[in-house]
Design a protein that fits this description.
By secondary structure, the protein is an alpha/beta fold. 35% of the residues lie in helices and 19% in strands. The strands form 2 sheets. Strands 1-3-2-15-14-13-4-12-11-5-10-6-7 form a 13-stranded mixed beta sheet. Strands 8-9 form a two-stranded parallel ribbon. It binds adenosine-5'-triphosphate and magnesium ion (MG).
Length: 431
């Protein structure tokens, strides 16, 4: 066992029953309890967070408060679980900023901080996938990436294309897309590319020319992104047992009209994993009913999403939103967990706040954001959130954790990372 079980550890997010049974197995070492928060904060027990059972974790805090850093700490821990547990867990990281490749590089700049914690710099075993079009760029810069990913065209159904093109069934464009997808599928099964969809649109005799031209134009545009391929990465291959896969979607910020791609990637990935897990659960239950015993091969899945308000916005419809809400509502049973980080809880879908069972927060100062998380106020809190925020140490790396299992609010100092931090704040000094 990696961390000795003693009065020095506090395991949170774990039921009393599971604590009795599993002790601190399958937990993430997140930081230490702050005993007194004055000028020189005094640190106490280690905080270990349960990652063996499904959770919805929400990480909030204003800009630069350490949300991405905290995500990295979690991911480092996922790679360091006991092999027996690790084999049952698969982690996927949606990297919206392009910073998590640095998990693969041991920390260099401040090893003294790690020493104080009795820890050593170390790399983390993660697989970093970037969009095909960006692979050259990463390789030229000598950044450690493992490969490219693309989406397999046949994995997109009509609603997904309509979503990407922002058209509905009410419009003739939507109807044409649906006919094109159907006819191509009928002829070619699941191996077709955008060119086949374009031909199907061109040859459609029922649609008017202007509708055909509009849809063909959209497909031609999508082709230039280099994201969709006849034989793309199969989404089901992304969640591998014991593995951490970082999917870098940061480049989709820059190109106009491409933001939808990010949404489609997360939405599709979430949907496939959800369907697969549900199907698997059914088979597993059938085996059990037949007296064959339960035997789970599919890992439980953790999806880490930085800047989560992009995928789960409050006042907009999005494909990823509908899928992730399913994860939140029924993900517990098929073993789907989410860790969402955002600096704008006020822009996040309220279900992502109200349903979280672990709330981790750096300081927040904006009134609307504090109000958004105030709905979480459980009976075991003694004062309002803004009071807690005011009392928090101002230095970096402190977080409040609300845990429904221990029914407690913890003030924690996040442990230093083993790996290089590519998210350091840009500044104009050269020191
Ligand atoms: N626990 C910590 N220990 C030491 N430094 C930290 C810690 N947390 C964050 N930092 C430092 O603070 C800076 C900002 O951290 P980070 O990028 O994680 O913030 P963020 O909350 O994700 O910000 P943004 O909202 O801009 O994405 C970084 O330079 C990081 O190295
Ligand atoms: Mg960040």
């Amino acid at each position: 066992m990696k961390y000795e079980m003693s009065a020095e550890n506090a395991v949170i997010g774990r039921s009393a029953e599971d604590l009795e049974r599993y002790r601190d197995k399958g937990t993430a070492y997140f930081g230490k309890v702050v005993m007194s928060a004055g000028e020189k904060p005094v640190l106490g027990r280690k905080i270990l967070i349960d990652v063996a059972k499904p959770h919805l974790m929400l990480i909030c805090g204003k800009r630069g408060s350490g949300k991405s850093y905290a995500l990295a700490v979690f991911i480092e821990e996922m790679a360091r679980l006991d092999p027996e547990v690790r084999q049952r867990v698969s982690s996927i990281v949606i990297d919206t900023v392009g910073i998590f490749w640095s998990l693969k590089v041991p920390v260099r700049n401040n090893p003294q901080e790690l020493e104080k914690w009795d820890l050593k710099p170390d790399k983390t075993d993660a697989r970093v996938l970037v969009p095909k079009g960006m692979l050259e760029f990463y390789r030229k810069k000598d950044l450690p990436v493992d490969g490219a990913f693309t989406l397999r065209v046949s994995e997109l159904d009509t609603p997904e294309w309509m979503n990407l093109f922002k058209v509905t069934w009410k419009e003739p464009e939507g109807v044409l897309i649906s006919r094109a997808v159907e006819s191509v599928r009928e002829k070619m099964g699941s191996l077709y590319g955008i060119d086949e969809l374009i031909s199907a649109c061109r040859n459609d005799i029922e649609a008017g020319k202007s509708v055909r031209d509009a849809v063909v134009g959209r497909f031609e545009n999508v082709k230039t992104w280099g994201v969709f391929e006849k034989e793309g990465t199969r989404l089901r291959d992304i969640a591998r047992p014991g593995m951490i896969t970082v999917i870098d979607v940061s480049s989709y910020r820059q190109a106009a009209g491409m933001e939808g791609t990010r949404d489609i990637i997360v939405g599709l990935l979430g949907k496939k994993l959800f369907e697969e897990r549900m199907l698997y659960r059914k088979e597993e239950e059938m085996r059990f009913v037949k007296g064959l015993g339960r035997e789970s091969e599919l890992p439980i899945i953790w999806m880490f999403i930085d800047e989560a308000h992009m995928f789960m916005p409050k006042d907009e419809e999005s494909f990823a939103l509908s899928v992730l809400l399913e994860w939140i509502r029924v993900g517990r049973q098929p073993g789907l967990s989410l860790v969402l980080a955002t600096q704008r809880p006020n822009k996040l879908h309220p279900d992502a706040i109200s349903q979280c069972d672990l709330f981790i927060s750096g300081r927040m100062t904006a009134r609307p954001d504090i109000e958004a998380v105030s709905q979480l106020r459980p009976s075991y809190l003694h004062q309002d959130f803004d009071k807690y925020y005011q009392e928090m140490p101002r230095a970096k790396g402190y977080a409040l954790i609300l845990d429904d299992e221990s029914e407690k609010l913890w003030l924690v100092k996040v442990r230093p990372r083993f790996s290089w931090d590519a998210g350091t704040t840009a500044n104009a000094f050269r020191d």
